[in-house]
From TrEMBL:
Protein purpose: Cell wall formation. Catalyzes the addition of glutamate to the nucleotide precursor UDP-N-acetylmuramoyl-L-alanine (UMA).
Taxonomic lineage from the root: Bacteria, Pseudomonadati, Bacteroidota, Sphingobacteriia, Sphingobacteriales
Residues binding ATP, per UniProt: G120, S121, N122, G123, K124, S125, T126
Annotated Pfam families: Mur_ligase_C, Mur_ligase_M, MurD-like_N
UniProt name for this protein: UDP-N-acetylmuramoylalanine--D-glutamate ligase
GO CC annotation, single: cytoplasm
SUPFAM superfamilies: MurCD N-terminal domain, MurD-like peptide ligases, catalytic domain, MurD-like peptide ligases, peptide-binding domain
Location of this chain's protein in the cell: Cytoplasm
Organism: Sphingobacterium paramultivorum
Length: 457
């Protein structure tokens, strides 16, 4: 049985894949294997290694253009999550009642593996990776996919996993209709990508809650009891599964909570209580206690042993570019948090440290509201080094709270400035709150250049 109980979509004929990135190429390969006549179309240029994959599989493709006549004659279309619903071609497809779905929705038809699905505005990647590593350590035959790792569709085509841990974005969820999550996790919901949701928070929240739309009584819904938008969303959206909340502010009978002694307590219906001191977690900071609670609840419902959970949660090393320790030079710790591309992520990063901070901030500003950082910046930040071409908003936001705000001309310049401003025992933190495209290819390139500059000090 697949994870889409009934086959709602054509199982043969012309499959058009819009976008030839990781998910698109994986979809094309799975589609070919399932007997579709597959055509891949990308309005941009296709990366060489993806072209080689498509050629090796004998799959037709085009780049730099859309053959609209061919696309509009498709039986089924799978589109990249990066393509908005409002693009005229997508509007035309829907007007012709041609199904337009996500890679995850497509691939879920062809697997009976258990699907553990994690979404949230912040912490998705960390929680997904921690969960994956924990389940692997517990001996499960587990795959990693979604917004992270290899394409889910490609793995369904070529591998045989018993379960998958999937990091799922709101953009993916928008094109998922009949997909069912065995375990659905909503970590938190804070304003992000609102330009795709008519600038309405309610629309973005509704998108996140699509995660639970087809759950059954056998499934689990894990969520944060302390997150206001999630709690508001629960008034409108309901799961048929078992609810397992996690919280640092209350006590719960079933779920996870932090007690007065700073010990995490996790209880599910199997009565084997898990306990672990927060200070024993390898990932520190309030937000990482939440991430670890969510992962712990997933592990519990997969019936992992407490010892396996403790070992994993005590030794996990964070993903690159997310609060990644680079070096300690002259008593100063250098931390790469280049993946922090919104203000909320920076709040979590600042909250993680008890030392004075020299903060590297800036890039392509998406209309950021920095006010939520004001108290933390006032309490913890010794100086700000601005990155990117447009730094006026950062100066305006923090000139009352920080004595020193300086502009830099490159990442190397920023790191050298930060090293002079930092004192022994401080933390130099790259946590930009902005996209990277003015100076760098992407956030990975930004993080790599930070690490290289640190190693040259």
């Amino acid at each position: 049985m697949s994870n889409i109980a009934t086959t709602y979509y054509p199982q043969s004929g012309s499959l058009v894949v819009l976008g030839a990135g990781e998910s698109g190429v994986g979809t094309a390969i799975l589609g070919k294997e399932k007997g579709f006549d597959v055509f891949v179309s990308d309005k941009g240029l296709i990366a060489d290694h993806y072209k080689e994959q498509l050629k090796a599989e004998g799959i037709a493709f085009e780049e730099g253009n859309h053959d609209e006549e061919r696309i509009l004659s498709a039986a089924l279309v799978v589109k990249s999550p990066g393509i908005p619903e409002t693009v005229p071609l997508v509007v035309a497809l829907k007007a012709k009642n041609i199904p337009v779905i996500a890679e995850i929705e497509f691939a879920a038809q062809y697997t009976n593996a258990k699907l553990i699905c994690i979404t949230g505005s912040n912490g998705k990647s960390t929680t997904t990776m921690l969960t994956y590593e924990m389940l692997k350590h517990g001996g499960l035959n587990v795959g990693l996919a979604g917004n992270i790792g290899k394409s889910f569709a490609l793995q369904v085509a070529k591998e045989q996993f018993d379960c998958y841990v999937l990091e799922i974005s709101s953009f993916m969820l928008d094109d998922m209709y009949h997909f069912r999550a065995d375990v659905a996790v909503i970590l938190n919901i804070t304003p992000d990508h609102l330009d795709r949701y008519d600038h309405k928070m309610e629309n973005y929240v509704n998108s996140k809650f699509r995660m639970i739309q087809n759950q059954t009584e056998k499934d689990y819904f894990i969520y944060c009891l302390d997150d206001p938008e999630t709690i508001k969303g629960l008034e409108r959206h309901h799961s048929k599964g078992t609810y397992l909340p996690f919280t640092q502010e209350q006590l719960v009978e079933l779920g996870a909570y932090l007690n007065a002694n700073k010990t995490i307590i996790i209880n599910t219906s199997n009565n084997d209580t898990f306990t672990m001191r927060a200070e024993e977690l390898s990932l520190q900071g309030k937000h990482n206690i939440y991430n670890s609670m969510a992962s712990g609840l997933i592990a519990k419902v997969q019936e992992l042993r407490n010892q396996v959970m403790k070992e994993s949660m005590g030794s996990y090393v964070n993903i690159p570019h997310r609060l990644e320790h680079v070096a300690c030079i002259g008593g100063v710790n250098y931390i790469n948090d280049s993946k922090a591309t919104n203000v909320n992520s920076v709040w979590y990063a600042l909250e993680s440290f008890s030392t004075p901070i020299v903060l590297l901030l800036g890039g392509v500003d998406k209309g950021n509201d920095y006010s939520m950082l004001a108290d933390l910046v006032k309490d913890k930040v010794r100086a700000i080094v601005c990155l990117g071409k447009d730094t006026a908003a950062i100066h305006t936001a923090f000139e009352q709270d920080v004595e020193i705000i300086v502009n830099s001309t490159s990442m190397q310049d920023a790191v050298v400035l930060a090293s002079h401003l930092a004192q022994k025992g401080d933390t130099v933190l790259l946590s930009p709150a902005c996209a990277s495209f003015d100076w760098f290819k992407n956030y990975e390139d930004r993080g790599d250049k930070f690490k290289a500059a640190v190693m040259e000090l």
